[in-house]
Amino acid sequence: MPESAPKMVLVVDDDLDFLDFVTIVLESDGYTVRTATNADAGLELMQAERPDLVIVDVMMSYELNGWSVSRQMSADPLLRQVPVLMVSAIVNESDEGVFPRNGHARLDGFMRKPIDPSTLLRRVAELTGADA
């Protein structure tokens, strides 16, 4: 990744091990990483620092899940253009076609956990434009 203006990625997941994993992988490639352990904290961070990409778990143990986060981002003029990469240990990539794409929720990509580090870096680069 070029040394000019590192891209900032926000990771929202209630799995602390996953947050650590993604942080290590992305920071080792020059990204700035912010993390949140629940949707409310993630949305608050998005308002404070507009990320270049949001990685969010589809299912979290809190009231707001990845879909709720995505819908709220779509409704916010400052956040609606931020790409969203959904991740899940439960949903298969083959199920991605059933995800809503009606404009009320944002979905720019999907990855199934566990995530391969090189695949993660490739997808993040694609979604942030860092591979350009």
Average pLDDT over all residues = 85
Output the structural class: alpha/beta
* The top level CATH class name: Alpha Beta
- How are the strands ordered across the major sheet? 2-1-3-4-5
Q: What is the CATH third-level topology name?
A: Rossmann fold
**What is the CATH architecture assignment?**
3-Layer(aba) Sandwich
Written account of the structure:
The chain contains 4 helices and 5 strands; from the N terminus they run βαβαβαββα. The chain is of the alpha/beta class. The chain has one domain (8-128): Rossmann fold. A 5-stranded parallel beta sheet has the order 2-1-3-4-5, sandwiched between helices. The longest helix is centred in the first third of the chain and has 13 residues, at 16-28. It is globular, with a radius of gyration of 13 Å.
Which terms summarize this structure?
5 strands; 5-stranded parallel beta sheet; 132 residues; 34% helix; Rossmann fold; alpha/beta
Outline:
This protein is α/β, with parallel strands linked by helices.
How would you summarize the topology of this molecule?
Layout: E1 8-12, H1 16-28, E2 32-36, H2 39-48, E3 53-57, H3 66-75, E4 84-88, E5 109-112, H4 117-128
Parallel strand pairs: 1-2, 1-3, 3-4, 4-5
Helix pairs in contact: 2-3
